[in-house]
Amino acid sequence: MKKKNYLIKFHYLFILVIPALLFSCEVELETPLERSGYEEPTSHEELLDFVEDAVARSENMEAEIIGQSYEGRDIPAVKISRDGYGTNPEMAKMLIFAQLHGNEQASKEGALLLIKEFAKGNLDEFLPDIDLIVVPQMNPDGSEENQRRNAQDIDLNRDHLALESPENQALHNLFVKYMPEINVDVHEYYPYGSSWEDYGYRRDFDMQIGLLTNINVPEELREYQNEVFLPYMQEQIEGKGYSFHNYLVGGVPGDGKIRYSTVDMNDGRQSVGILGTFSVIYEGMNGRDRYAENIEERTKCQYESMVALLEFTQANKDDIKSVVEEGREELKAAEAGQTVAIETEYVKGDEPLELPLVSFDDEERDTTVTVEEFYPYVEMVNEVEMPSGYLLPYEDEQLLNLLQRHNVEITGDFIPEEYNIYRYTNVDNIDNLTVEQLEELPADVPYVYVPIGQLHSRMVTLALEPESEIGLVNYDEFEHLTEESDYPILRVYRR
Questions:
Q1: What is the pLDDT of residue 364?
Q2: What are 76's strand-pairing partners?
Q3: What pTM does this model have?
Q4: Residue 141 CB neighbour total at 10 angstroms
Q5: Which positions ≥6 away from 26 have C-beta within 8 Å?
Q6: pLDDT tens-digit series, residues 312-367
Q7: Residue 46's closest CA among 58, 34, 62?
């Protein structure tokens, strides 16, 4: 009888203890790319499974599905925080999102590697100072096909004003929910184009970082990025063994301008930078096949560059928060009469650019080229005075929905007698654009009011002015704004 009891007890011991021992010896966490031996980039299904596994291993992480792609694939965001993202005002809030372009695989893989290291506790030293959200894959549909655009055939990095894509709508909903001080849009650039092949040389920067270049972004924020942030990042990234440069675009030397990247606020960097956010773009070097070539080196460079940003943020947290807060307060305090640059251009610098290049076929021919046609500065071509606000036709649901998605303040509280009201005419022939003052508000059209004194002051002006080089009138879906001679959006000044 006793023997039988011992057997029963041993049986229960086996049931209870052995699984616990097996759990304590759980499999080492690896990204899907690592598990493939750096042979195959992570699929969307693998990404979802990895995020679930990583979050389950850390008390400092939680996952949220922020939306779905055009073809219905989930877009996960991983929140990494000691106290809960956004709950502690002392923290610097950061958002990193990757793979807006589906054929830039290492941007996603670097973000997954960052998530892994946080899940393992290897980056816990940043948690006392930084709340982090990582969205490792913004374009799952494009990634599955290894194509730049999403399944709507939209370039997601040119859709941050119109927000046509569900992917970018989800991202901006996330941003306005938490208003992070720091924003990082992670990409790869392609140095292997046919013009460079014909030239015989290519750029060879493992990482390029683009800063805020739109001159409507608060000046102190732009200066801080140029004078403090960029030199730090160059030193850190080069110290990790990678080559570095401020992000350059343009053709081969001697064939057109070479300049820094776009000023347009329809990309992932400037679109939130115009709201006073410390926002940058990462451009790691892509592989020749835009898929798996050199994927291990590309991924590790992206990861180390993200860690360098965390290091910079931790060392300069108070300064970053201060310059962002001051910039946002400046935007909120905008008044009628202040100017906004609605058209700009890059202009030539005083000094040429010394550009190191790598030979396509013989490393002994590597060289440095002096680029005379270097245009590093942005100057205003055309400006407009901000009004006190804008009146938008209430029946234009498309326009109102877009501004609401951007979290723009819209109100029905408008007293016509307290304002002078102006209308653009001849917008169907923009070269003959004129302005006329209205004696009274048209009685047959209901309007809503967008006041200029808000965080989106410069963004709204750039979006709604018909002469703006990056305004809504440049998009097919808003061509109705210029179909008639009279512009339907009115400008108002308080008397």
A1: 78
A2: 65
A3: 0.93
A4: 21
A5: none
A6: 999 999 999 999 999 999 999 999 999 999 999 999 999 999 999 999 988 778 99
A7: 34
**Residue 400: per-residue pLDDT:** 96
Exposed e or buried b for every residue in 294-314, given b needs 16+ CB within 10 A? Answer: ebebbbbbbbbbbbbbbebbb
Place of tokens 């050199």: 294
Looking at residue 15, what is its pLDDT? 52
Asked if 420 and 457 touch (Cβ cutoff 8 Å), the reply is no
Contacts of 229 (CB under 8 A, 6+ apart): 211, 278, 280, 312
| The pair of three-digit structure tokens given for residue 250, joined into one six-digit string | 């343009």
CA distances to 33, 109, 424 from 292, in Å: 10, 11, 52
CB atoms under 10 Å from CB of 193, counted, come to 12
| Three-state DSSP class for residue 454 | coil
Quote the crossing angle between the two packed helices 166-178 and 397-405, to the nearest 10°.
50
Residue 459, SS3? helix
Q: What is the pLDDT of residues 101-115, one digit of tens each?
A: 999 999 999 999 999
Q: How far apart are CA 213 and CA 273, in angstroms?
A: 9
Backbone angles phi, psi at 116, to 5 degrees: -60, -45
Report how far residue 427's alpha carbon sits from residue 473's, in angstroms, rounded to the nearest whole number: 10
41-332: CATH topology is: Aminopeptidase (3.40.630)
- 3-state DSSP assignment of residue 407: coil
Return d(Cα 230, Cα 309) in angstroms, integer.
10
As a whole number of angstroms, the distance between CA 88 and CA 125 comes to 17
Residue type for position 273: G
Tokens for 124, please give them.
């816990």
Q: Which residues of the chain have pLDDT under 50?
A: 1-4, 6-10, 12-14, 16, 18-25
What are 253's two structure tokens? 């030397």
The answer to whether 461 touches 386, Cβ cutoff 8 Å, is: yes
The residue among 251, 261, 162 whose CA lies nearest residue 198 is: 251
Show me where the domains of the chain are located: 41-332, 386-494
Structural tokens at position 232: 């730090």
Contact yes or no for 371/351 (Cβ under 8 A): no
At 177, the amino acid letter reads: K
Nearest CA-CA partner of 452 in 337, 292, 373, 341? 337
DSSP structure string for 181-197: SEEEEEEEE----HHHH
| Per-residue pLDDT, 444 | 85
